[in-house]
Amino acid sequence: LTALARNNEISIQSVFFAACAKVYGGFGQGASGGEDVVLGIYMANRSHLDNLSALRAPTLNLMPLAIRDVGSRSSLDVAKQIHQDLQDIGTAINSAVALWEIEQWTGVTVDCFVNFLKLPDTEVSVESNAGIKISNANSARLGERAEVISRSEADSFRLPEPLQSLPEMSAYKHSADIEATVRDGALDMGLFCPEALLRLAAAEEVLTAMRRTLIEVASEEDAI
Question: In whole angstroms, what is the distance from residue 85 CA to residue 215 CA?
């Protein structure tokens, strides 16, 4: 996948998003029943700020990414379009738009988010300026697994009352969350969601389909 991205001057992130769009659309989640798919993405929004190292505030924003004609185009073509769209979305003015504003303008909401993490190459990294250490906290949990985690009533989260009455909150739905990163030369991926949204067997089917789609994407390059 790294060679595929490099040869086509796109990012691995774009290739992964394209595979997600293919799988998501294949499970009948195309927008309005068609071949268009909308995925949620995480925007760090760090490159537009001065003196970022001194900022003690989050810059994260959640944005929708519309992918057109997913079913009728090759995964590589979809990835190339996504790469260009991510550059457009990442501009200072576009990346600051709120998800609830987009819902008001277009009626579009998101029920599947994809986060491609860029982690340090080394297992342990220290940034001297910030005093931050990044390390594996529980290596035993890095293996392949699938499980349902139950929470007690004491651990259940309830949205604060003032936020419940805000009309903007309708844009933030219960959703599936796909997390991925490249680690030790391999792609790690996880799917997290409420069981009411996707049961365990269905979630495993999604991940299997993702693996198959990524293998097919790599083979597209070999066939060219």
Answer: 24
DSSP 100-140: HHHHHHH---EEEEEEEE---SSSSEEETTTTEEE--S-GG
Residues 6+ away with beta carbon under 8 Å from 117 = 179, 180, 181
Structure tokens at 101: 């504003």
64 half-sphere exposure, CB direction, 13 A CA radius: 24
3-state secondary structure of 126: strand
Q: What is the pLDDT of residues 66-117, one digit of tens each?
A: 999 898 899 999 999 999 999 998 887 888 888 899 999 998 889 899 999 8
CA dihedral in degrees (195, 143, 205, 196; nearest 10)?
0
Answering whether pTM is above 0.85, one says no
Q: What is the pLDDT of residues 50-70, one digit of tens each?
A: 666 676 767 788 899 999 989
d(CA 157, CA 173): 14
Whose tokens are 């505030």? That residue is 57
User: CB 220: neighbour CB atoms within 10 A?
Assistant: 14
Name the maximum alpha-carbon separation found in the chain.
56
